[in-house]
């Protein structure tokens, strides 16, 4: 489809146009940038970020949360940020496979994005994709990160509510505390609670939370035991997500979240520009100069980004 048709079909809420627009945004195509500029700031979706170590059951839990959202008549989108192949840059699409039972529901849209080496567990195009999904009229958007451990705190800068998924007998409480994820989670889910060690993990979380700094507006992060495979505890967890969103609205914190999301997007663009410049011929020469001690990293970075600023 040409640009005029794409814009018209997107405005008419055509899912195929949305899919095409997301592809253009992820590729950095000018049409995608124009579409974003025309529609940014529209919509008011509730954005929930799910983070946690690989194998914690984030995808299965997301599947259950989609179900709860649909019970309430919500139009739902999911951005599943998959690990990238280091060779092709493509996503594995494993998360989409786990949510296949919703693929025939016209009110559910699931999209996988390749992380492409993003350190925070998020693809560089995640925030831009969020803006398009909001403009498309989704009521709730779930963003599931790759689960890369200590660098995954970026999700808190993108989502309104950050859900940390942990499992028993995996040392998750200690690791989460060390990684700083404990401090950014708004809601905790202890998944696979039917396994031994669930109660102990909840006690460890409560102890760790006592050492965490106070949250905005005095929010106290709740902890929910769940078994995503059976749906046990998921309804209560969903109500906890709703309670946190109500807290943000009540204390006027949503606007602050949206500003931080925009800041994260700008920083991601700068990071991507820098990464591309280092791989160009001129950038490689500057890297060589740093390795030889002829330039400091700061001097090389300023030279790399100077053409962009101009």
Automatic annotation (TrEMBL):
This is Transporter. GO terms for molecular function: GTP binding; GTPase activity. Pfam families: MeaB. Belongs to the SIMIBI class G3E GTPase family. ArgK/MeaB subfamily. InterPro entries: GTPase/Isobutyryl-CoA_mutase (IPR052040), GTPase_ArgK (IPR005129), P-loop_NTPase (IPR027417). It comes from Thermus filiformis. Keywords: Chaperone, GTP-binding, Hydrolase, Nucleotide-binding.
């Amino acid at each position: 489809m040409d640009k005029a048709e794409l814009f018209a079909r997107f405005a008419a809420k055509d899912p195929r146009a949305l899919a095409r627009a997301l592809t253009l945004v992820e590729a950095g195509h000018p049409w995608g940038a124009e579409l974003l500029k025309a529609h940014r700031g529209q919509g008011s979706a509730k954005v929930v970020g799910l983070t946690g170590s690989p194998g914690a059951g984030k995808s299965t839990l997301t599947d259950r949360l989609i179900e709860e959202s649909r019970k309430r008549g919500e139009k739902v989108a999911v951005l599943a940020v998959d690990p990238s192949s280091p060779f092709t840059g493509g996503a594995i699409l494993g998360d989409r496979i786990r949510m296949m039972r919703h693929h025939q529901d016209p009110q559910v849209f699931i999209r996988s994005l390749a992380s492409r080496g993003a350190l925070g567990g998020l693809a560089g195009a995640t925030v831009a994709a969020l803006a398009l999904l909001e403009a498309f009229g989704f009521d709730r958007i779930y963003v599931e990160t790759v689960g890369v451990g200590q660098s995954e705190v970026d999700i808190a800068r993108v989502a309104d509510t950050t859900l940390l998924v942990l499992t028993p007998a995996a040392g998750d409480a200690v690791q989460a505390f060390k990684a700083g994820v404990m401090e950014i989670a708004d809601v905790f889910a202890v998944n696979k609670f039917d396994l031994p060690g669930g109660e102990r993990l909840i006690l460890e979380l409560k102890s760790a939370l006592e050492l965490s700094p106070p949250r905005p507006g005095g929010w106290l992060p709740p902890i929910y035991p769940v078994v995503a495979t059976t749906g046990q505890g998921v309804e209560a967890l969903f109500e906890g997500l709703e309670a946190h969103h109500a807290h943000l609205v009540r204390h006027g914190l949503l606007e602050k979240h949206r500003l931080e999301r925009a800041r994260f997007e700008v920083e991601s663009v700068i990071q991507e520009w820098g990464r591309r410049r280092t791989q160009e011929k001129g950038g490689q020469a500057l890297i060589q100069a740093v390795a030889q001690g002829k330039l400091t990293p700061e001097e090389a970075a300023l030279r790399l980004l100077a053409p962009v600023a101009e």
